[in-house]
Amino acid sequence: MDAFSAPGRFWKGNIHTHTNATDGALGVAEVCASYRQAGYDFLAITDHFLPKYDFPIVDTRPFRAPGFTTILGAELHAPATALGEMWHILAVGLPLDFARTPASETGPELAARALAAGAFVAIPHPGWYSLSLADAQTLPGAHAVEVYNHTSQVRTERGDGVYLADQLLAAGRMINLIAVDDAHFKSPDAFGGWVMVKAEANEPDALLAALKAGHFYATQGPLIHDIRWEADAVEVTCSAAASIMVLGRGSRADQSVGLCQTRARLSLKALKGGGFARVVVADAAGRRAWANPVPLPD
User: Fold this and answer.
1) Burial, 97: exposed, middle or buried (Cβ in 10 Å; 0-12, 13-18, 19+)?
2) How far apart are CA 278 and CA 295, in angstroms?
3) What whole-number distance in Å separates Cα of residue 187 and Cα of residue 206?
4) Whole-model pTM?
5) In Å, how far are 102, 168, 206 from 77, measured between CA atoms?
6) ∠ CA 103-107-109 to the nearest 5 degrees?
7) 212-235 burial, b if ≥16 CB within 10 A, otherwise e?
8) Could you report the per-residue pLDDT of 217-231, keeping only the tens digit for each?
9) Which side of the chain, N or C, has fewer Cβ within a 10 Å radius?
C-alpha cells in the first residue's frame, strides 16, 4: 500500500530541525511556535546527540496543542565515514532514555540501535558532506534518504541528495525520500522542505507508523494529490506543475512538460527492466515534490 491508497489524510511536518539546546539560534518553545504558526501539523526537533551538548533528546511534549503535535528525535553522530567525517544519522521517534553513544560505537552500529529502539532512521544531507554509496550501504535498515535539505542548499548549495537515492535504487535497495529544513535559524533556512504524511490521526504514534510504512511524499511546495500505477502507465494528479515526471534506473524516464498542468498520464515502457519507478512534480518556480519509489516488475 502506498501513501495515496492508505487510509487517513495528509499532515504537513518537518522532521529535522535544531534549537539552542545544541547549535541552533532559537529556544525549543520558539521553534515549535514558529512551525505551528507557519501551518505545520507536526514537528520533530532533532538536536545533535553529542557529548559536548550532554546528549540531548529534547522533550517537546509540553508544546503539543490542538492541531499541532511533536515527535521526539535526535541527529545521532559517530565516527567515521569514508572521507573521515563524523556520521550524521537522523532518528525520529526515539525514547527519551535512548542510551548515550559510547566512544567505541560506529555509525552503522548506532543506526541499528536507533532502529531497534523504534525510530524512523534516515540518511541526512548526503550531498552536504559527500556521503558515498558505499557509506550508505552500511546502513541497511535506514528507511529514507534526504533528497532535499534546505539549510544545506541555502548555506552551501549542497542540499540535493537525489544522486545517492538513485544509486541505492539502481543497486536494488528500495529506500524512501524525505525533504527537510534542518533549520538552525541562523539564516533563512526554515520552511523550505517538508513531508506530507498520510495517517488517520495527527498523533505521534500514527505519524511514526506512517513514516515507517512509507505513507508520505516529500516536497518544497508542490502538492501530489494522487498517483495511480498501472501495468504500463502511471496517472498523476497534482497542483499546477511545469513538469510531471516518472523516473527509473539510469536515464530511463517519461515526462509531460507544460505550464499549469494538474494531471498527466506517463508511460512506463521505457522504465521496464530497471527495477523501480518514482514520480517527481516540479512547479514553474522549480520547486519539486518527490513521491516514494515503487518496485517495477519486468
Assistant:
1) exposed
2) 9
3) 32
4) 0.98
5) 10, 22, 27
6) 85
7) bbbbbbbbbbbbbeebebeeeebe
8) 999 999 999 999 999
9) C
